[in-house]
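Two quick folds needed for the group meeting slides. Do the first one here.
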Amino acid sequence: MSVWHNRSEKTVYENPWFRVNLADVELPDGRHLDHFLIRQRAVALATAVNERDEVLLLWRHRFITDSWGWELAAGVVEDGEDIEAAAAREMEEETGWRPGVLQHLMTVEPSNGLADARHHLYWSDTATYIGHPADDFESSRREWVPLKRVPDLIARGQVPAANMAAGLLMLHHLRAS
């Protein structure tokens, strides 16, 4: 069995959202290597599907990749905050829609060769519009998109974030079953 062992770690940079650490990793053959890794807070994501089988998405620009795409409302889980409550809070803040009872869809590790982040995806089959989103700067627009369009949007690169593509495909599969 090829197991890599983390023998020690030291923080080389830290801020409220993540830490960059340098680890001394022992390989299966006994050699050691320095490996940078990112320790991140948990992320909670949420969306809703309405009675017309449309999913609530955000259209936004990501300056890091200079790309546009459809996304779910998402954000870090605050200290002491319940993950499901964080997902509901993010959806409300970013879309102006309050989800009904949230159901856990999946948990993914988007980049487990570099970071320890876990992204927890939730969805609801109801949502109530409460007004213009508090965090409207998060996206250019918010739309109810037919769930049947999801596979095509992903295939055309319009859902570039892997965690969100995986969640939307799972949701599409569950609703089609």
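Then this one, please, same format:
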Amino acid sequence: MNRENNEIMELVDHAVNGDKTSLEMLAAGVQDMVFNLALRMLGTVPDAEDATQEILIRVISNLSSFRKESAFQTWVYRLAVNYLLDYKKSMFAKYPLDFEFYGNDIRYAKTDEIEDLVDELSREAFAEELKMSCTNVMLQCLDAQSRCIFILGTMFRIDSRTGAEILNMTPENYRQKLSRARKKMADFLAEYCGLTGTGNCSCNRRVDYAITQRRINPAKLEFGSLEELDGQFIGECKEEMEKLDELAMTFERFPHYRSPVSARKLIENILNSSPFRKIQQY
């Protein structure tokens, strides 16, 4: 076990023994990871924020059950995945999508019949917002397990052994499901997305249509309001996306975001709540 893992395990021990600072450090260390996973799994920022808070509460409340048989991050992934796979409150859980429906929406949208609603200077920012939204919508076309495997394996670079552990399946099964999910996504992109060079959908042309359909709100850009994360993590995700059947340019600016959820504030609320004090009594 490397030094970093040893330090995390020490934080776990201190947190379980009631050290608030250690608890905050553990939660803060995984909140961005949890938020980005929730955002890709659920498709919208509000749903991801709600799910992130619930997952962090589960991490904090179940910390004493962590047996150190796997990496702490893997344990958090497992808690998050189990919660997100069964999440029924998101917009896309209520209104599910598939590739056929989304493809027809792109094919038959009468984008040329809508008057220009924004100036050219604003259009670029709105087109970027639409691209971020669209990539998340595309993920919703996969069934929940396939979506999770695609996100973990392609965007988060989770190896098949760890991914299989998180999802309670064999590494071979994980690899097979990841391959099928990647092919479905690649086929859809190649047919519809103009950024691939073969599809005819254009974010710039589709902006006005998206506004009329209330898919983006010019007054409040969901993705544009998020703070992007810097560093090696984004670069590694981009590198992995480039292996997606050479459709790299579709995802080359696919950012990862800092979680809007405050771990410190959340922990203070939890520690001061009567339900948590009852848990501590057992």
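Slide caption for protein two: The chain has one domain: 3-281.
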